[in-house]
Amino acid sequence: ILQSFTHDEL
Amino acid sequence: MNVFRLAGDMSHLLAIIILLLKIWKTRSCAGISGRSQLLFALTYTARYLDLVTNWVSLYNTVMKVFFIATSYATIYLMYLKFKATYDSNHDTFRVEFLLLPVTILALVLNHEFSFMEILWTFSIYLEAVAILPQLFMVSKTGEAESITSHYLFALGSYRLLYIFNWIWRYYTEEYYDLIAIIAGVVQTVLYCDFFYLYFTKVLKGKKLQLPA
């Protein structure tokens, strides 16, 4: 898995 | 999305537009640090690779594409189109002194030891200090054009507004991201001295000039 975190900010 | 976050993003957008317009209208990038701009391009490239791995919203995607595209456009204008006007002899901050610690910090202090997450963390730490070559350049020449000051003010305000956004999110969503918060505070603190000069000089119609 490449990414388990989702960053919703810029 | 809350009003602080939106205001922060708009401030960031405004900063970039001011910078590009300044360079385009005056056909000159005098007083602008190419090294800071390279660090910003690296920041957005590392952070927004998630454009291809996860979808947040149309707003998010459009803004990410805009930030990446404009950062490379700025570099193109500075290093190619208006290269003759670039003040490279005053732009001498050693970026390896930023890149090395930031890389190590990202490898050590992250939420998860994965490729994307380390790139994201690297970008957050790098963004916090990416303005240092620019501030160094201003202190070296002892002055900045008003338009450059407006650019720096908008760019500094953006992370300050994000801090209010994080406080808001903490109380309303119980959401917080310590890495972003601490780096964001560091980033904002670096602008404090500049903010002071901006309010006491530039807004009173004077040029931003440091005492000799």
UniProtKB/TrEMBL annotation, chain B:
Location (main, coarse): endoplasmic reticulum
Subcellular compartments: Endoplasmic reticulum membrane
GO cellular component, one term: endoplasmic reticulum membrane
Pfam families in alphabetical order: ER_lumen_recept
Its membrane topology: Multi-pass membrane protein
Keywords from the named record: Endoplasmic reticulum, ER-Golgi transport, Membrane, Protein transport, Receptor, Transmembrane, Transmembrane helix, Transport
Listed PROSITE patterns: ER_LUMEN_RECEPTOR_2
Gene Ontology MF, one: ER retention sequence binding
GO biological process, one term: protein retention in ER lumen
Residue stretches in coiled coil: none
InterPro entries in UniProt: ER_ret_rcpt
Sequence intervals crossing the membrane: 62-80, 92-109, 115-138, 150-169, 175-199
Similarity-based family: Belongs to the ERD2 family.
Protein name: ER lumen protein-retaining receptor
Organism in which the protein naturally occurs: Orchesella cincta (Springtail)
Lineage of producing organism: Eukaryota, Metazoa, Ecdysozoa, Arthropoda, Hexapoda
